Amino acid sequence: MYRSFQNSDKLKKACRDDKPLYDYNGGLVHDIRRKLIHHQVLTVLKFIVSKIERKLKLANFGL
Predict the structure, then answer these.
(1) Distant-in-sequence, close-in-space partners of 20: CB < 8 Å, separation ≥ 6
(2) In sequence order, what DSSP letters do the residues of 37-61 get, joined into one string?
(3) Domain residue ranges in the chain
(4) How far is CA 18 from CA 12, 21, 25, in A?
(5) d(CA 13, CA 25)
(6) Phi, psi (rounded to 5 degrees) for 2
(7) Distances from the Cα of 17 to the Cαs of 12, 14, 21, 38, in angstroms?
């Protein structure tokens, strides 16, 4: 019933050294860096939007 993940075909396939982690064009490093940058941009945009919303709410109450 229970099959150990260590013996699974997926793990064996993932551990094969067909592709290097870091190739000449960046490969994995480039993907990770791109995802981190996107996450940081989204975080900054959320922060800016929350500040604008707060200012608009205060301005509406002041009228």
Answers:
(1) 27
(2) HHHHHHHHHHHHHHHHHHHHHHHHH
(3) 19-62
(4) 12, 10, 16
(5) 23
(6) -90, 125
(7) 10, 8, 9, 29
Q: Which residues contact 28 (CB under 8 A, 6 or more apart)?
A: 21, 22
pLDDT greater at residue 59 or residue 54:
54
Q: Buried (b) or exposed (e) across 25-54, using 16+ Cβ within 10 A?
A: eeeeeeeeeeeeeeeeeeeeeeeeeeeeee
Could you report the per-residue pLDDT of 5-56, keeping only the tens digit for each?
455 565 555 555 555 555 556 677 778 888 899 999 999 999 999 999 998 8
**3-class secondary-structure state, position 2:** coil
Distance CA 7, CA 57 (A): 58
